[in-house]
Structure formats: C-alpha cells, structure tokens
C-alpha cells in the first residue's frame, strides 16, 4: 500500500453517473441530485510505515513498496526461469500468500527422511515452472525417484525490521534458557554461511560472503541473516533477477547463464530499497488483551512464540533501536514432528525443523503454517507436534471458554 500524506476518500456515489449511462436515465435522475456526504471507512490497515516515520523514511518506504509490487519483465532481466514476476504476488500487500513455492526432496522409502543422494535434483530443490529468454524447460519434479513435494506460502513480511533489529545476545540467551527446560522445548540457532557479497551501501550489517556461523533469522527455516541477503536471494531465486549481492543466475536444465538483459540485472539500489521497505513496515496495532496473553503463557505457547525480544541499541533505524520488539517468536528452530516435515535441509535446519513463526499480522491471514494447510488458528495449533506436544496437550485441556479467549487473542495479533 503506498501511503500519501493526503487522505484519499472515494465518495461511494462516484459510480452513479456511469451506472445511469449504462442503465438509461429513467431510474436514476433524482438520486444524483443530492449526493450523500463523504464517508471515511475505518480500515484496519497493516502495510503501514513505522510510527514516527520521518519524511526521508517515508520516501524510502514508498519507493520500496512500489518496487515490491512491480511485475518485472524479461527486458528487466526476468528469468531465464522464474516462479512469479513480483514480490507482491507471493506477499500480497506484504501479507501471506497467495503465491507459493514448491520444494522437492529425494527421500528414503519412508517418504520422509532426506536421502544422502540428492543427485536426482541437479538444479536444486525448488521448482521453477516458468521460463523465458531462450530457455526451453522448467525445473520440475524428476520421475523414477522417491520424492517428497511440499509447498511454501510466502509468509507475511510485516514488522521484519523489528526481527532484524533483535540483538544476537537475546537469541543466544533464549537458546540457553530453553536448553534447561523440562517440557521438551529446545530451540536451536540456525548457524549459517553468509551467501551475499558485502553490501557497501547499507549500514545494517558488515557481513561478507563466506562468513560462517552467522545467525540465521529470516526464512521458514531461518537460513538468512539479513533483509538485504533475503531480498537479493528472492530476486534471484523467485524471479531470476541477479544483483551484485547474488550475481549468478540459478542453475537450469538449459545451462543458460544469462537472460534478455545481459550481465547483472538489477542495480544494488533496487535491492536496498526493497529491503528498506520491509524494515520500515510497522507491526499492526494490537488491542491489549491481558486474559488472552495470560492463557497464551499458561498453555506454553510463549515458550517458542516469545512475546518480545530486546533489540540492538545500535540498530540504524532509531525507532527500532533498544526497544522490546513484540514479534512473538524466539527466532529459533524447533522440531515440530513428522506431520510438518518436508524432507528439506537448510544448513543446520533438518526436515522436521521450522523457525517459530512470528505471530505478526495473524489477523490478516487466511491460512496458516508454512504450506498454508491450516485454515484456522485452532487447526494450526493442533498440527504442531514434536517439541510443541506438551503445549498442544495444555491447549486441548483448556475449557471451551478459555480456548475461545486464547484463539481470539492469537487471531487478533
Ligand atoms: C514465488 C513466490 C515468492 C516470490 C515471488 C517472493 N517470495 Fe518471498 N517468500 C516466499 C516463500 C515461500 C518464503 C519462505 C521461503 C523459505 O523459507 O524457503 C518467502 C520468504 C520471504 C522473506 C522472509 C520472511 C521471514 O519471515 O523470514 C522475505 C523477507 C521475503 N520473502 C521477501 C521477498 C521479496 C523482497 C521478494 C521480491 C524480490 C519476494 N520475497 C518474492 C515466496 C515468494
Ligand atoms: C515448540 C515450539 C512451539 C510451541 C510451543 C508453539 N508453537 Fe506455534 N509455531 C511454532 C513453529 C516452529 C511454527 C511454524 C510451523 C510451520 O510453519 O509449519 C508455528 C506456527 C504457529 C502458527 C502459524 C503462524 C503462521 O504464520 O502461519 C500459529 C497460529 C501458532 N504457531 C500458534 C501457536 C499457539 C497458539 C501455541 C500454543 C498453544 C503454539 N503456537 C505453540 C512453534 C511453536
């Protein structure tokens, strides 16, 4: 959503004249003489910039927002293979879905355990169904091998600046605390290798390509450390748009190394602006609900969906520095059991492991969990297995009215 400083109100009688032309004048002459007053319709807006946004930040936000919604074309460097043409196709209005990615993994005969030999997938684990720029084949599922297919719906990208700003020591502290719990909750940091070249134009991190032991926090299995890294990866992997941070086109069956736009497709500025847009999106305003949050804690949801974590004092966006970020996640990986396993390994994250989903903007979601299989929050909770088993038992043991209050609370986040 692009934010203007001036309010745009569309009178709801604006369509009358056209309707009259279409329907013939007989039915509508009188109505248009006395137009009803303008009305502001209350909106529960979610794709809004941070409270206290400066005019410079608002400009960045709007430019990034525009690029986020923009469909890219082959002349811009789209392809040779791609999944969708715009970020917004999978993160509509910065929310969850509807676009998705299909993952493939070669698995053992149990249909679940990732096989040591993944050579049947020489072009990687991601299906890329569309092709342009001289390509002749998509990346699709090979036949003759035991394969697990799974979907990943684009998660909401609301409040991602808060997530990036969380201090490393906070995540380390929560990991250490969980190591001594007795309820089975034992999260782990996904320590990853950094895949982006250094980004000289961004003050947000000083990581270099090849740095190891970097703390992953973005992605469903926490495989990326920063928003620039994830953005460059998304442009490259989902759209075939290379940038200085990810200069190489993804491997493909035709062996193509370039597309209609020779060389690197995007200026670094584009990556930075899109990353800045996501950094500057506010967490949607929530109504305090003490009973609901008490039940959330009593049921053990807060063991993983930690309500708030402290951010770095030196994070370059002042509004996000040195505050409690209410992200409802510990940013750790948890084994959620076989039911949710996808056979995909992401650095230290195994098939059954998922990063605790940040509960930001839940009230705007229509489907839940990494593949959107749950159509209600209750279904999502009941699908949690593994480390969340005890919490699910507490949930099932709640009285009907307490369960309703808890669900209402989660649905309002
Ligand atoms: C084809 C659908 C699709 C497109 C297009 C797409 N994404 Fe995503 N996005 C996803 C999926 C699926 C995930 C989860 C990925 C994973 O963990 O493997 C994701 C994850 C993310 C995340 C991590 C969020 C978090 O909670 O950790 C960010 C940030 C993001 N995308 C930004 C972008 C940007 C920026 C673009 C455009 C350059 C983009 N995405 C394009 C589907 C898409
Ligand atoms: C052991 C850690 C753990 C506990 C305990 C836990 N969760 Fe989760 N939760 C997760 C993880 C990990 C995911 C992501 C799973 C996936 O995407 O498949 C998740 C996903 C969710 C989602 C879906 C969010 C989305 O973006 O789709 C909701 C809603 C949710 N949890 C609510 C709860 C509630 C309510 C409780 C308590 C009854 C709870 N969780 C307990 C780890 C946990």
Task: Give a structural overview.
The protein has about 425 residues and is an alpha+beta fold. The protein has 3 domains: about 1-45, no CATH class; about 55-165 and about 215-280, no CATH class; about 290-410, Cytochrome Bc1 Complex, Chain D, domain 2 (Orthogonal Bundle), CATH 1.10.760. It is built from 10 helices and 10 strands. The protein has helices at about 15-25, 55-70, 160-165, 170-180, 225-240, 270-280, 290-300, 375-385, 390-395, 400-410; strands at about 80, 100-105, 130, 145-155, 190, 215, 310, 325, 335, 355. The strands form 5 sheets. The protein has a two-stranded antiparallel ribbon with strand order 1-3. The protein has a two-stranded antiparallel sheet with strand order 2-4. A two-stranded antiparallel ribbon has the order 5-6. Helix 7 packs across helix 10 (about 400-410). The longest helix has 15 residues, at about 55-70. It is globular. The two termini are about 20 Å apart. The model is unreliable at about 5-30 (pLDDT under 50). One heme C binds near residues 299 and 334.
